[in-house]
User: Fold these one by one.
Assistant:
Number 1:
Amino acid sequence: MTRLIFLGLPGSGKGTQAAILAGLLNIPHISTGDILRNAIAQVTPLGQKAQSYMDRGELVPDELILDLIRDRLNQPDAQNGWILDGFPRNVSQAAFLEQLLQELNQACDRAINLEVPDEVVVVRLLARKRPDDTEQTIRRRLEVYHEETAPLIDFYRERSVLSSINGDRPPEEVTESLHHLVNG
Ligand code: ADP
């Protein structure tokens, strides 16, 4: 049973690594970004509400995310572990998650911070060409990360579950370090 939270800048590779690790561990990879992008593609009410925030590189309001996470963690496949990617993204989401996990009688094993310098992720994101990967949006997403999400590094360090991994290496090496971390 493994329950992991992935932290890292946009472009740090956390989505890629979370998917690989979830496959290896046979647990669901829960990406709030993917859930929101699907909602936008399917033009659901959630997608319609989220789109303008995502286009600007802002976080979508917590009220759009919290019920979604509660429902997802209550699904049968999430009872055997999970990897959260893109959630929590600010301190209030982390506080909500802590409360929710208590209610579910679960606990997160580790919060893994995938460390990559800002200059490196900018280059990676500009090469990736997702619709929200314009230069202006990237700049805003990095700002939002430093302001809202980076405080979670201390949040999880204080709870003694933080691990850091150097993400500025070839993807296979990063995967190997992660694998080692969760199995060791
Ligand atoms: P990245 O980490 O590259 O920015 P994500 O797929 O994780 O990519 O997120 C894309 C966008 O989705 C974010 O910029 C934000 O607008 C929105 N988003 C994803 N997760 C959350 C969340 N937990 N809270 C608020 N907004 C979110």
Number 2:
Amino acid sequence: MKLADRMARLGTETAFEVLAKAKKLEAEGKNIIHLEIGEPDFGTPSNINKAAIEAINNGYSHYSPSPGIPELRTSIANYMSKTRGLNYTADEVVVTPGGKPVMFFVILALVNEGDEVIYPNPGFPIYESMINFVGGKPVPIQLREDKNFAFDTEELRKLITDKTKLLIMNSPQNPTGGILTKEDIIKIADIIKDKDITILSDEIYSRLIFEGEHFSIAQIDGFKDRTIILDGYSKYYAMTGWRAGFGVMNKDLAPQIAKLVTNSVSCTNTFVQMACIEALEGPQDSVDMMREEFRARREIIVDGLNSIQGFSCVMPHGAFYAFPNITKTGYNSKDLADHLLYKGGVAVLTGTSFGAFGEGYIRFSYANSRENIKEAIKRIKSVL
Ligand code: PLP
């Protein structure tokens, strides 16, 4: 069967491939510490589970409107208004099965062939994959270790051309754990304020931030209507497998994105949407507990990584990733990741899974227990 040409331009997310390799080793009897996959190791809070079960029992098992159940859209609009200090309404919200479809749909809806999209590199691999898929031109902006993995705003100025259609930002960031500070974001806004550039702001880790407060470019005067915020339940409510997320965008774009939902998945799972109302409106102590546990693990992993000869790791300020520089080990990113998996039983991701500027780094997800993180550090030391 001959595939359509566009399939050759579609990338993937290697985290799932490494997970499969690690599972195969486990099936052969090897003990593997999983530091590769980007999902919290906590269970979903019980009040959310209960709300989903009640919703099924109460008949929420049919289609819902494509952009989401009205009560949930209102709940999200209220949440976004409160957390971003802006005034959002339900018609600016589109509910999606996970945060990922927001990047898929927004890039599909906005980027014409030949349009340029500036995106963070190393960064979430699906940005580049989708830009290529729709025939756009990916324009990577390098995240720099010496800037705590923010990008150089002067470099942004140089990358902008008349063809720049979209700027993708992500803070807190995957894979580096870096954040863009309010000052960075003000500078970015200043550079693009007079240009016809839309922003896709991926804020999926917005509540997993350890220093300072989350700040969105949408909060800058004149930017709310030109910014699409991607957010969701996967990371800070530990709901990765539920597939629940949302995009918040201006009223004209929202129905277009909803049309893409209609054309693809029809709607997000209806009883999951009911549970999402409970997630936002019920007790929030689990989010605080998870964040504080991640904070403690961050100390352990960063100290541990810095004690390995050849590794140096800057302190991440958000999400649950550490991204050490490994150039002094003498290995490249791929060989080291393979060595750690096959010889040490520690599964990690190569920096290059996140783009060419990830060479020289590997990504650790510290969504694993303190004991396992300490054991992983020991194992790495013993195989290097
Ligand atoms: N954006 C970033 C930066 C991510 O790291 C991830 C997941 O790893 C997503 C979006 C997708 O989240 P979801 O699982 O809700 O689709």
